[in-house]
Design goal:
Number of helices: 9
CATH class of the largest domain: Alpha Beta
CATH architecture of the largest domain: Alpha-Beta Complex
Largest sheet: 6 strands, antiparallel
Helix content: 25-40%
Structural class: alpha+beta
Low-confidence stretches: 2-16, 83-87
Mean pLDDT: 88
Shape: globular
Length: 377
């Protein structure tokens, strides 16, 4: 008994010493950080703004964690809360950060960005005459915002293209109609979902019910290409429409309250009709949850290109200075147990975009045309 007490006492002392040592290391680093700031303020070749330096340091810390964590100054946080007021115009792109460069996750359908020709995976290197490298994600977003009707010049680098591409884009108020649908070839129900908004699932339910009136209906195509995601609750509801049972998605985190699982309820509203899901590199987050869940349950054939790989949950956490941080607090996992993060969803049948003339739901849309042939064949 005495040996056990001595052993646990030793462990407790060891843990205390290690914790105390770690805290000491942190305090030493903070001292060094303060010393570096002082040296910069006194000796750097140009005069600097200490407040901006601190903002950059905070943002650098967050961006060292992952591409989606970021710092918002009080001004940018307020701008984020009010950007739907109509005072500012946008381009219609979802952006992220990769290796210090702003990357297009997805241009949204029928927005200035998509009409101009920006593509998922493009790297934004210049906004007007301002070099983007070295800027934070929020700083780049601020540069892209502006009055409705004003123009902006975006310079991008694209995989497989040697020269930089320059796009002249006019800002507009972005109004997203998340669901579009039609009957193709008299027997295929085509549903295009461009984002996961508050009423997306209800819109899809209504479209499917309407399509079921067609007695010749062979199957459905759910088009999630260039869909950057949105609300998790909508991804769960939409996945549930096509499943009879089983897990849809789970989240795992250091915080116990964020460890959750969601399951399908009984009842496939399509009555088990054949389902094809289209994805591409612009399909991210909630899109990947739906495609991944339907693939894992072998409920749908996934066609297109590998998805983006954004399988994480961000939370906006307000700060004392009226700014905020966007922090990754959990990761999504598919029913198979696989993480989406940085991997994405691999299609069952890989079909790349045919050419630069490629446009969704048109004669040049070889991915959709392949899906139609598959369903009709």
């Amino acid at each position: 008994m005495i040996k056990k007490i001595l052993f646990f006492s030793f462990i407790s002392v060891f843990i205390f010493q290690k914790t105390f040592s770690n805290k000491n290391d942190i305090y030493k680093k903070i001292d060094i950080f303060g010393e570096v700031l002082e040296k910069i303020n006194k000796e750097y070749v140009d005069e600097v703004n200490p407040s901006e330096n601190m903002d950059a340091a905070i943002n650098g810390l967050l961006q060292s964690l992952d591409p989606y964590s970021a710092y918002m100054t009080p001004e940018s946080f307020e701008g984020m809360k009010t950007e739907t007021s109509g005072e500012f115009g946008g381009l219609g792109i979802e952006v992220g950060m990769e290796a210090g460069v702003v990357k297009v996750i997805s241009p949204i359908d029928n927005t200035p960005a998509s009409r101009a020709g920006l593509k998922a995976g493009d790297y934004i290197v210049k906004i007007n005459d301002v070099q983007v490298q070295g800027k934070s994600l929020m700083e780049a977003v601020e540069l892209m915002r502006g009055p409705v009707g004003s123009s902006i010049e975006i310079t991008v680098r694209r995989r497989g293209v040697k020269k930089a591409l320059i796009f002249e884009i006019t800002r507009e108020i972005i109004e997203i109609q998340s669901v579009k649908s039609e009957i193709i070839d008299n027997n295929i129900g085509y549903i295009r979902l461009t984002s996961f908004n508050e009423n997306s699932s209800e819109q899809i339910r209504e479209r499917i019910i309407k399509m079921k009136e067609n007695k010749n209906l062979k199957g459905y195509i759910l088009d999630l290409r260039n869909n950057p995601g949105g609300l998790l609750s909508q991804a769960i509801k939409i996945s549930d429409f096509f499943l009879e049972n089983g897990e849809i998605v789970s989240t795992r985190s250091r915080q116990i309250k964020e460890n959750r699982k969601w399951f399908a309820k009984k009842g496939d509203i399509t009555n088990g009709k054949t389902l094809v899901v289209l994805i591409n590199y612009g399909s991210a987050s909630a899109s990947e949850i739906v495609a991944g869940a339907l693939k894992d349950h072998k409920r749908a054939i996934i066609i297109g290109e590998n998805s983006y790989g954004k399988g994480s949950v961000q939370s906006i956490i307000p700060l004392k200075n009226k700014g905020a941080i966007r922090l990754t607090i959990a990761k999504y996992y598919l029913p198979s147990g696989k993480s989406i993060s940085e991997v994405g969803v691999t299609p069952d049948i890989e079909i790349a975009e045919s050419s630069e003339d490629f446009k969704f739901n048109s004669d040049t849309d070889n991915q959709l045309n392949f899906a139609l042939k598959l369903l009709n064949g």
